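Write out C-alpha cells for BED-type domain-containing protein.
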Amino acid sequence: IVNSSRLKSIVWNDFDRVKKGDTFVAICRHCKKKLSGSSTSGTSHLRNHLIRCQRRSNHGVAQYFSAKDKKKEGSLALVTIDQEQKNDEVLSIVNLRYEQEQIKSEHVGIGSNSLDQRRSQFDLARMIILHNYPLAMVEHVGFKIFVRNLQPLFELVTRNKVEADCMEIYAKEKQKVYEIFDKLPGKISVSADVWTASEDDAAYLSLAAHYIDENWQLKKKNLNFVTIDPSYTEDMHSEVIMNCLMDWDIDRKLFSMIFDSFTSDNIVERIRDRLSQNRFLHCNGQLFDVRCAVDLLNRMAHDALETLCEITRKIRESIRYVKSSEATQATFNELADEVQVETKKCLCIDNPLKWNSTYLMLEAASEYRKVFSCLRDRDPVNMKFLLSDPEWDRLITVTSFLKLFVEVTNVFTRSKYPTANIFFPEICDIHLQLIEWCKNPDEYISSLALKMRKKFEEYWYKCSSGLAVAAMLDPRFKMKLLEYYYPQLYGDSATELIDDVFECIKSLYNEHSIVSPLASSINQGLDWQASGSPGSGKDSRDRLMGFDKFLHETSQAEGSSSDLDKYLEEPLFPRNVDFNVLNWWKVHTPRYPILSMMARNILGIPISKVAAESRFDTGGRMLNHNWSSLPPTTIQALMCSQDWIRSELES
C-alpha cells in the first residue's frame, strides 16, 4: 500500500492506493472493487463509485460534492459560507412538492442516505400523469437502469403498483375538486366533448366544469372521461350525463351546458327537462343549451373548402410542380420578379388535418395568379393544372370567407379561458357578412353562402340570447351593442327583439335578486312571522315562497332603483385593449351586489369549448395511444388527474 502526502482528496478515506507493476489501483475499502489509482486519472470516478457503492452505508452522499480540501489543515468543511454573511444566516434545501400537506417522513438531504420511498413513488406517478407516459415505462430496462444509477435506494415499482398510485392521486385530487365546488359563490356551466381512440375507434365523453371562482378568475376542471358505446340511444346518452352531474352533486348548481353542433337536440331536451323538474335552471332553461362557436366556424369553413375541392387539387399539383426542382423554383421566382408580385408569402403544400393551413395555401397561391399564368405559357406541357379565370375569381372570393373565419377563431381562442362577452360582436359581424354573401350574383357563391347561413341560423336561434346578455354585462357596451347591431340585422323588427332580450335580462336579474343576500332581511322577517304563528309549519312557509318573490319585486318598484337600473344609466366604460371584464366586476361587486352575481354566472359560460391548439382541426380529439388500452376507470382517473394537477401547477 502506497501512502503519499499528495493524497489530499477525501475520497482516499475510503480507498487504498496500491501499486501493481507500473500502475496504481485504488481499492474500495467497502466492496473491494478495483479502479484506476494513477495520478493522471483524477478522483471523479472514485467519488462516483462511492455514491453508488452498496456496501458503504455509513457515509453521506452529499459530502463528496460539497467538501473542500483546506490548504493548511487536514480538516474538512461540509459547506463553505462567505465570512461576510451574518452568523445567523443558514442554508436551506427547498423541497418542491405537488401536495400541499406536510410530509413528516424523512427526505434525501445533505449528509444522509435517507429516502422517502412513498413520496418518490407518488412523484413518479404524477410524472406519468402529467406527460402521458405509459404505465409500463416502470418496467422498461432503460428506465430501471437510469433510476438505479440515479438513486440506488429507490425500490422500483411494478406497473400495477404505479397504476394503484395513480388511482390514489385521482381520489385525493377529486376530493379537492369536490371541496372547491362546495364553496363556489356562483353557478357552474358544463361542456361536453367527444374523444376517440385510434386503435379501436372507441368513443369517450369528456365533461368539464367552467366557473368563476371567489377571486373572479375563470376556471375549468375536468369532471369525467367515460366510455360511450355507438349503440347508445339518446336516452342512454342523456342518462350518462345526468349520472355524472349527480355524482359530482352539481345538478342543482348547473347554469348551462355547451355541446358541439352534432349533439342531438333530443339529448339536450331530456337533460333540460330533468333539471327543470327540480327548478334548478334560470329563465326556464332558456339559456341552458349553448353550442360551441368555434365548432360552428369549423363547420362553415368545411363547407367552403368542400366547394373548392377541385380547385384545391389543382393548386396542390401546381405547387408540387414548382417545388419539384431547384430550376423550376428559380424560374418561378424570376417570373414573380418580372410581373412585380409584391407578396413575400411562401408557397407550400397544406396539412389536410388543419383547415387554416389549406386557407393559407390557397391565399398564397391566389397572390401568385399572374406568375402561374406566365409559367404555363413557358412550360405548357408540365403546367397542366392551371385554373381558369372564373376558378381564380371563385377562389379569391371563398378565401375571403375563410379569412374572416380564421380571424374570428383566433379572437375566440386568444385567451385560454375566454369570457362570454367577447363573442357577441364577432358573431354579429359574421351574421352581417353572411347576409351580404347571400346577395352575390354568382350562384356558385350565393348557394355556398346560403348553406353556411343555414348552419349559422341554427346556432343563432339557440345562443343569441345568451350572447346578448353577456354583451350587456360588458360595461363598455351594455345595451348599446344590441342597439347598434340589431337594426342592421333585423331592420324594423329590431326594437321588438331588443325588448325581448331586455325582458330576459330583467327576468334573470329578478331570479338572482331572490337568492341575493340583500333579500335575506325580507326572508328572515317572513320566517320570523311564520315561526311565531301558532300552527305554522314547513308547508305554510312553502306556500308563501311566491309571496317572497312578490314582496321583493314590489318593494324594489316602490323604493330606490335596482342594480340593473343604476348600471344601465351610468356612462359606458372607455374601450381599450387591456380591459379585463372580470377585474371590473370584482372591483364593482359592492356597488352592484345582485348584478355581479348574475355577471359571475353569465360570463362563466364557455361559449367555445375548443382548445387553442386544436381550433383548426378537421377531426375530433383523440386519446393518447399510451393510455387507450387501459381500463375505462383508469383512463378517466389519468385524464382528470392530469387536468387537475396541471391547473394546480399553473396557478
